[in-house]
């Protein structure tokens, strides 16, 4: 029996995207179907280059063709990705930024900046175009974590106006107020001035085309968080917390801020950082220094995704100090955990944008 393009499409209707819960044909993820005798080729356009289900979807498509079309067919599947977005177009320097992800925490000291840096590099290493804004106005650290202490933004032009060009490190476009202040210089900005500085980081930087712009927010629930959500089209927030009760209490307040009607930023999920301590010489041991599963229980209570649980490992701190985020390590437990974190955040962004399209 002759193989047709329609038969191929009908077969692929049996393959669902695991996150979006609909078949690939309905989701318009099947492109460039070609048939030549028993030779079949097509492209699957994933919603993110960081898709952890890539191999599973590939195998499901292959099995669908062999089962529903022809068991002797020779199938060639090209897997590619286009990051989804629901952000409207504008004429600012953010016009080609598809998704803006805020990384927040209720209190300091929970590893928020480390998470933001590893999230940005993790997404970039999986093929996405990524930028990072260090919006922690009073305690910027990303210029150190990316090894760019002695660098600074260059000059660029946008719509005939002079702007800043971001610094590029480890495949990530970066701007931070840390570039503009000396190592011993305090950043003494009151509310309105801090808000203006934040706005300049976003709108005076020529970001170009980005799939994700990560924002490292200061801890707490102050001016910067509120100003960000009123000035910038934030896709969603990732809240970082350790499992101890004091940190969780503050994380609740941070989550509640994003859920206020005048803020209204979706929570993409929670990251439990320092979930346990694993000594380098005892890699199988886990010591729950800050308590066990506190953020996991909070995620269940609030019905929001738990993005991941990350161990407290000395080399993560060492990597940050060395300007080379730990996600760049080769096949270490922490690097794999950070890569999984990046995949899970990308999944949540894709799910949210798909829901907005349907709405």
Describe the 3D structure.
By secondary structure, the protein is of the alpha/beta class. Helix content is about 35%, strand content about 20%. It has helices spanning about 5-10, 55-70, 110-125, 140-145, 190-205, 225-230, 245-260, 295-300, 315-320, 335-359, and strands spanning about 30-35, 40-45, 75-80, 95-105, 130-135, 155-160, 160-165, 165-170, 170-175, 210-215, 235-240, 265-270, 305-310. The strands form 3 sheets. The protein has an 8-stranded mixed beta sheet, sandwiched between helices. Strands 1-2-3 form a 3-stranded mixed beta sheet, with helices on one face. Helix 1 (about 5-10) packs across helix 2, helix 3 crosses helix 10 (about 335-359) and helix 5 packs across helix 6 (about 225-230). The two termini are about 40 Å apart. The model has no long low-confidence stretch (mean pLDDT about 90).
Write the SSE topology.
Blueprint lengths: L4 H8 L17 E7 L2 E8 L7 H15 L5 E8 L15 E9 L6 H14 L4 E5 L7 H4 L8 E5 L2 E5 L1 E3 L2 E5 L14 H13 L6 E7 L6 H9 L4 E6 L3 H15 L7 E6 L21 H9 L3 E4 L4 H8 L11 H26 L1
Helix pairs in contact: 1-2, 3-10, 5-6
- CATH class descriptor of the largest domain: Alpha Beta
Average pLDDT works out at: 90
Helix tally?
A: 10
Give the overall form. Answer: globular
């Amino acid at each position: 029996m002759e193989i047709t393009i329609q038969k191929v499409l009908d077969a692929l209707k049996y393959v669902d995207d695991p996150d979006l819960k609909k078949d690939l044909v309905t989701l318009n993820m099947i492109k460039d179907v070609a048939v030549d005798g028993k030779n079949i080729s097509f492209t699957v356009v994933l919603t993110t280059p960081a898709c952890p289900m890539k191999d599973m979807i590939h195998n499901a498509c292959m099995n669908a063709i062999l089962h529903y079309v022809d068991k002797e067919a020779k199938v060639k599947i090209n897997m590619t990705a286009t990051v989804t977005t629901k952000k409207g177009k504008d004429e600012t320097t953010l016009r080609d930024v598809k998704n803006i992800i805020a990384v927040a925490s209720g209190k300091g000291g929970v590893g928020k900046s480390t998470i933001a840096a590893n999230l940005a590099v993790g997404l970039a290493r999986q093929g996405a175009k990524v930028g990072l804004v260090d919006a922690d106005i009073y305690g910027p650290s990303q210029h150190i974590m990316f090894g760019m202490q002695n660098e600074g933004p260059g000059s660029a032009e946008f719509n005939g106006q002079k702007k800043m060009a971001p610094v590029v490190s480890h495949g990530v476009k970066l701007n931070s107020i840390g570039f503009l202040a000396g190592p011993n210089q305090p950043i003494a900005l009151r509310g309105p001035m801090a808000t203006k500085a934040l706005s300049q980081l976003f709108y005076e930087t020529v970001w170009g085309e980005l799939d994700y712009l990560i924002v490292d927010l200061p801890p707490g629930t102050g001016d910067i968080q509120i100003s960000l959500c009123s000035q910038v089209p934030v896709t969603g927030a990732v809240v970082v917390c350790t499992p101890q009760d004091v940190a969780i209490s503050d994380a609740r307040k941070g989550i509640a801020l994003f859920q206020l009607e005048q803020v209204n930023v979706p929570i993409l999920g929670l990251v439990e950082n320092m979930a346990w301590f694993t000594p380098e010489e005892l890699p199988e041991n886990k010591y729950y220094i800050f308590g066990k599963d506190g953020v996991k229980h909070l995620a269940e209570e609030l019905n929001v995704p738990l993005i991941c649980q990350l161990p407290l490992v000395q080399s993560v701190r060492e990597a940050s100090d060395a300007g080379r985020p730990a996600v760049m390590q080769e096949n270490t437990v922490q690097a794999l955990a950070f890569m999984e974190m990046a995949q899970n955040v990308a999944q949540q962004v894709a799910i949210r944008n798909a829901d907005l399209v349907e709405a």
